[in-house]
């Protein structure tokens, strides 16, 4: 067994709670173990700090321990992101830190997958790249640079739809840093932080960590995935590092449509390197090429709903608590679509952006239908408009829907709402960039809801001026109506018509088992939404109202969100809409055990 901390080993119990079952792997920071959480009766992954040399200088030992704490802090800041391995806790055992993480069953890292089965298809690499790019972007928006993007840190695992590698996760924030916060950089004095052959040239020469440097590493990683080896792989780490700075990457031979993306990401000058937004658009075009009819589908970079099921006719619903008599609290779930490529791979989790542009009509004099005859709107959409969507054949997100306005934003059970607009200088720019920019503009609200997708309504060339030179960014229910306003367009004090509009971290004033109202979290409230879960297809709505509390306590335990289990308990809300659409989504909340009110400080 490789040398590790004195207390490592199968059968040991860490912090009186975690039983080590077997070693999963290891790296420069430490060993990763599969462990059994004896308190919650579930499996987790534990990362321990490893000191290979017992005589390692005290300063470097302290730096290694501090880096472990930084890893936990940075990864916890991205908690809930569908493409980042979740960190649950960091604890100390016998003077050393251990990081408690999500155990991803059946996962294989990209390096191992390529070694096992050979290089991947360009479309599959593009799908993986989109997911990793989404995770990196989420970190960059928080000021966190990963600094060690490489094939071994990308996990591929089965998704709930059965695709063996449908779930894509970025792991190991062990050397990440927030450069703009004054945070100490825990860099080992004797080593360059990062992995030879994947470091950006500006990092090798002493430059600061930046988003552009992470993008270079992503380019190296995708190159490895499609070519079977890194672009700067040499006979030794030193030779690889030298090649990064002084040599151009080996010309790819298998990359196909991915080659321009790789070339842009591997540009040595960070000022000229492809941006995240441009890379996202290019990768999306590889995964979902533009059709001849200009109905371009672009993957939603977030994770689609884990309870994705075949679409069924939508219908309205009423928010209700469970039949246990406990108050139910709604909660939105962060959904971001994991994209699947071609070559026999299914769309992983199925989220998608639809760019709608119909060129079958004439006009061009400013009076043409802004989005084409298929979409059917005579006037341009306005921000906050609620819409009804009539899909061809009745199947949601299949083809181009005909849209109509719902002025009441509730009376007719709207399918979605216009959440933003993005402007363009030309209709061609709108078609090329509108979907990706809409994805960015609506990412936050989609991440807080349980079962939605994005819809980019792109003006046609003839209707470009009539549309005000803008693409409308909509958020629609993935399987049914949303029953009311979304995001910040909801008013405090308004009763929820259905659980479909409940969002993560919503605070609820519970009037009865059938009525909850949205209230500010700064004051007093009865429950707060934590997340979502899904009940089985054979569970009826009546049964759900008695089973949902237990399901939420099991799948979305309040303790995981920092709530004291001796004071708080899990609650839930069920809605008719989720059963009529077939999704069986339950909103999971937290409340006080004694029924008392909660306050903003909680």
From TrEMBL:
The keyword Cytoplasm does not apply. The keyword 4Fe-4S does not apply. ATP binds at residue 47. Keywords: ATP-binding, Kinase, Nucleotide-binding, Serine/threonine-protein kinase, Transferase. Its EC number is 2.7.11.1. It comes from the Bacteria. It is an enzyme of class 2 (transferase). SUPFAM superfamilies: Protein kinase-like (PK-like) (SSF56112). GO terms for molecular function: ATP binding; protein serine/threonine kinase activity. Residues 297-329 are annotated as: Disordered. Residues 18-286 form the Protein kinase domain. PANTHER family: MITOGEN-ACTIVATED PROTEIN KINASE KINASE KINASE 20-RELATED, SERINE_THREONINE-PROTEIN KINASE NEKL-3. This is non-specific serine/threonine protein kinase. It comes from Streptomyces griseomycini.
